[in-house]
Structures are given as structure tokens and as C-alpha cells.
Design brief:
By secondary structure, the chain is of the alpha+beta class. It has 2 domains: about 5-240, Nucleotidyltransferase, domain 5; about 250-425 and about 460-493, Nucleotidyltransferase, domain 5. It has helices at about 45-65, 105-110, 115-125, 135-145, 145-150, 155-165, 175, 190-195, 240-245, 300-310, 320-325, 370-395, 410-420, 435-445, 470-490, and strands at about 5-10, 15-20, 25-30, 35, 45, 70-80, 85, 95, 155, 170, 180-185, 190, 205-210, 215, 235-240, 255-260, 265-270, 280-285, 290-295, 340, 360, 400-405, 425, 465. The longest helix has 26 residues, at about 370-395. The protein starts with a strand and ends with a helix.
Length: about 500
């Protein structure tokens, strides 16, 4: 039996999973790190810390599976929208500026309102927003001209790790398709975006298919413990696209809903789906499969904020966090009139407003901590419901939902999602959908499975949540107020 180590590099942690072609998880490891942030919208990660975490989890999983035959390769998943400027020797001139960095907001707003911005969205599939590397480049060029001029390359987190491992500047189609710089129809860098950013294709890595692999590690990493010489590394795809693959959501109408630090709703399509209202993204999974959807900035991170900053529970362990979230289930749907707009980090889909702010509305003296907690969970879920509605308008109906991310530990929250969407919600119980998806992409790249659709059989549903129509009607009434509240407050934000 063959197995692949799938590694997912995220903005809060890196996870590794050893996954077999029979659908078994042999071992897993994870390592967390903290972002560098401030009130100006800065959100960065240290490249050296990311590399150390990657090597650490790889060594740990390799150690746990030492002596077991059948290791076929290593396959990668990574968070999208990051930007690192490096010099001619590949040394970072900046930290990794993540999707959550908002400093490029004025540049994104100006571009979004232009005809150039509309053409860029249509051709690249990436909504104009501070998250995108295109917007970050506009900011960097204006605010840090010395760094911009000195930079030999502008790369992502995965590209930095790939360069450190193999000494090559290569970027998979999927990560490239989330930059705002890549033509998702021609599979090449898009000239109008490059011109707008003030760079050439030489400043960027060579685009390669998501099945591309390398096996000649640089001397520094050639003797990684537990790895046989010449083992192939598959470049893989982006975390969002691989979450669909790792959740077995590849057929029409099959939808994934992920809530981790952030959140997203995604569908798989055979071609990009253009949204005239520019609400959804279109990213590449493979040359023949696209992932359309929308991501929210405000997922589990909002819950973490409330627990730490409002309840004073810093350093709470997972059990204490789950217990606090569980208190929300003692409140009836609708939070007894309390509504929460969850836009603590601005917002991406579907409103694409980096100036959006968080709001509690309808507070009465009868409301206690448990009401606020439930309103937070409902607000996050309403935001994702809006994304789902945008997808249905653009692509077609949602048949059912595969749930993934940290929120799957909360039965109450899963039931809430089923009720709000009025859709059946499945939980597969995979260790990490993106890391599992990376392993599946590795099986496909190495010919161990003939097509990605066949990988669905490797993932088994463990729990099913059926929607309750009475609760759905209550949520629909509250959602209408949620949407109206944002529209009324948008200009004040």
C-alpha cells in the first residue's frame, strides 16, 4: 500500500498527514506560529519560521512512519495571496505579507472602481481586494520604493519554501491563479496586471501544473531524516482548492464549507464562472477543474477574539474553548434579537469591503454572554450563507455541503449551518481536508490513481446533519435583517 505525506502551510499553523491510497491516516503532526500585526492593518509571517515549521512537521510524520514501506512522495498545499519580496540571492526583503494584510486597501479600492480592474477580475478570476498580491504590489511600489526596486522576485510562501528546497522559482497554477496577475484561461502571466503592478514576468516564478514534481533537494535538505533519496515532491495546489478535493466535493452541486481562522464556501466547475457582480473567485485546481467560491476573513478567529479579549480567557485549551462555544446552544435560534456583523478584519466575499466593521445590534439588558456567543456563530454563518447564495446565482444550486475546518468539533455549529442553508451537511472526519487533498493530488500526479474523481472513494462520511425547516424559517428572517443592517451601515463604516 502506497502513502503520501500531504503538507498544508497555513497562516496560523502547518499540518502534515501521512495518507494511504486506501484512505487511511497513518500519522499527523502540526505546528503553530503567530502573525506580526498592528492597528494599521499589517499582517505578516516570518519566512524563516514558516520554513522551520515545514521541516519540523515533515520530520515528525516521517519519524512516526519510519520503517513502513510505501512512501511514494511529499505533496504540498498552501494558503493563497501571500507576497514576499526577495533579492537576487533569494534572501527575503520583507516578511510574508498574508491575505489578511489590509494596508493596500486604498490601492485596491481605486483599481476596483476602474475599467482596468474589471478586466483584470474577468481574466484572472481574482476579485480586486487588499488580499491579492496585485494590490500588495501596488502598495509596496508606492510605500516601500527602495525594497520594490531592489527586489529580484516577488513570490508566495510556497514558492519561498520550494526555492529553499530545490533552488528553483516555480509556482503552481493554483497559487498563481489567486494572485490577480495570472490569466486563468491562457495559463500564463497576464500582461495588463503586470503593467499595472510595474513588473515583468521575470519578477515572477515560472508557472507549472499542479502535478509538477521535483526530486533533487539542495544539499541543505538532501538528508532529511526518514526520507529516501530521490523521493518526489509534488508542488500541489492551494489550500482552498485542495479542501474541495480532500472533502470529496468534485461533482456539480457538491459544496464545501470551511471554517478555520477564516472561512469559505466553494464549488467545483469544469470552467471559470464569471460573476458580473464580482462576488466570487475562480481558482485553478487542475487544468480541467476550477474552484469557484468566496472566502470570509472572519471565521473562527472572531470566536477566538471574543473568548480572549471579551471573556479574558487567553490561553484557554481546546476543551475550554469548546465548552464556551457550547453555551451558545442554550439560546434559541435568533439569539433573542441580538445580531452580529462579524467584520472584525474587514471582509472579502461577497461584499468585498476592507472597511467593513464588526457590529453588535439589538443589545438588551436580558442578553448574557451566551447570547453574544450565539450571535457571533450566527453572524459568521450568515456571512457564509451570503457567499453560498452568490454561488447559486452564478453556477447553480447547492445540493449538499461537506464541512471541514476547526468548527467541525462543534455539533451545535454544524447543525446551525445545516439549518441556515437548509441543506444536508456531511462531516468526513479527515484530519485536515487541505493536507488530505494534497496527498490525493500527489497520488494523481504519480499515477497511483487515474483521475481525481476516483479519489472521492478514499473519504468516508462519518456524520450527517439534517436541516430543520422551522429553524430555517427563523434564520431566514434574521438573515434578512443581518443583510439590511450592513447595507444601512456600509457608508458609515
Amino acid at each position: 500500500m502506497s502513502y503520501i505525506i500531504g503538507i498544508d502551510i497555513g497562516t496560523t499553523n502547518t499540518k502534515a498527514v501521512a495518507f494511504t491510497d486506501g484512505g487511511e491516516v497513518l500519522a499527523a503532526a502540526g505546528e503553530s506560529y503567530s502573525a506580526i500585526s498592528d492597528s494599521d492593518g499589517r499582517h505578516e509571517l516570518e519566512p524563516a519560521r514558516l520554513l522551520a515549521a515545514f521541516v519540523s512537521v515533515l520530520k515528525e510524520v516521517a519519524g512516526k512512519t519510519a520503517g513502513r514501506k510505501g512512501l511514494a512522495g511529499i505533496s504540498l498545499s498552501c494558503a493563497m495571496h501571500s507576497l514576499i519580496a526577495v533579492d537576487k540571492d533569494g534572501l527575503p526583503l520583507t516578511n510574508a505579507i498574508t491575505w489578511a494584510d489590509l494596508r493596500s486597501q486604498p490601492y485596491a479600492a481605486a483599481l476596483k472602481s476602474s475599467e482596468t480592474g474589471k478586466r483584470i477580475y474577468r481574466q484572472t478570476g481574482t476579485p480586486i481586494h487588499p488580499m491579492s498580491p496585485l494590490s500588495k504590489l501596488l502598495w509596496l511600489k508606492d510605500k516601500e520604493p527602495a525594497i520594490f526596486q531592489r527586489a529580484a522576485k516577488f513570490i508566495s510562501i510556497k514558492e519561498y519554501l520550494w526555492w529553499r528546497l530545490f533552488g528553483k522559482y516555480q509556482i503552481d497554477y493554483s497559487i498563481a491563479s489567486a494572485t490577480g496577475l495570472f490569466d486563468i484561461y491562457a495559463f500564463t502571466w497576464y500582461g495588463e496586471s503586470l503593467e499595472k503592478a510595474g513588473i515583468t514576468a521575470n519578477h515572477l516564478s515560472a508557472p507549472v501544473p499542479c502535478t509538477h514534481r521535483e526530486s533533487s533537494l539542495v544539499p541543505e535538505f538532501s538528508l532529511l531524516p526518514g526520507l529516501p533519496e530521490g523521493l518526489p515532491f509534488i508542488i500541489g495546489s492551494s489550500d482552498g482548492c485542495l479542501a474541495n478535493l480532500g472533502s470529496r466535493a468534485l461533482l456539480p452541486g457538491e459544496t464545501t464549507l470551511t471554517i478555520g481562522t477564516s472561512g469559505a464556501v466553494r464549488m467545483t466547475a469544469a470552467a471559470p464562472e464569471f460573476d458580473p457582480r464580482e462576488r466570487i473567485f475562480n481558482y485553478i485546481l487542475t487544468e480541467n477543474l476550477y474552484i469557484s467560491g468566496g472566502a470570509t476573513n472572519n471565521g473562527g478567529g472572531v470566536v477566538q477574539w471574543y473568548i480572549e479579549q471579551c471573556l479574558g480567557k487567553k490561553g484557554a485549551d481546546s476543551k475550554e474553548l469548546n465548552d464556551l462555544v457550547a453555551t451558545a446552544d442554550t439560546v434559541a435560534p435568533g439569539s433573542e434579537g441580538l445580531i452580529f456583523l462579524p467584520y472584525l478584519q474587514g471582509e472579502r466575499a461577497p461584499i468585498w469591503n476592507a472597511d467593513a466593521k464588526g457590529v453588535f445590534f439589538g443589545i438588551r439588558s436580558s442578553h448574557a454572554q451566551r447570547h453574544f456567543m450565539r450571535a457571533i456563530l450566527e453572524g459568521i454563518s450568515y456571512s457564509l450563507f451570503q457567499v453560498g447564495a452568490s454561488l447559486e446565482e452564478t453556477i447553480g444550486p447547492i445540493q449538499h455541503i461537506y464541512a471541514s475546518g476547526g468548527f467541525t468539533h462543534s455539533k451545535a455549529w454544524l447543525q446551525m449551518v445545516a439549518d441556515i442553508f437548509s441543506k444536508r451537511v456531511y462531516v468526513t472526519g479527515v484530519a485536515d481536508a487541505s493536507a488530505i487533498g494534497a496527498a490525493m493530488m500527489g497520488f494523481y500526479a504519480l499515477g497511483i490513481i487515474g483521475n481525481l474523481e476516483a479519489s472521492a472513494g478514499l473519504i468516508q462520511v462519518q456524520e450527517t446533519y439534517e436541516p430543520d425547516e422551522q429553524r430555517h424559517r427563523i434564520y431566514q428572517e434574521r438573515f434578512a435583517l443581518f443583510a439590511t443592517l450592513y447595507e444601512r451601515l456600509r457608508d458609515l463604516m
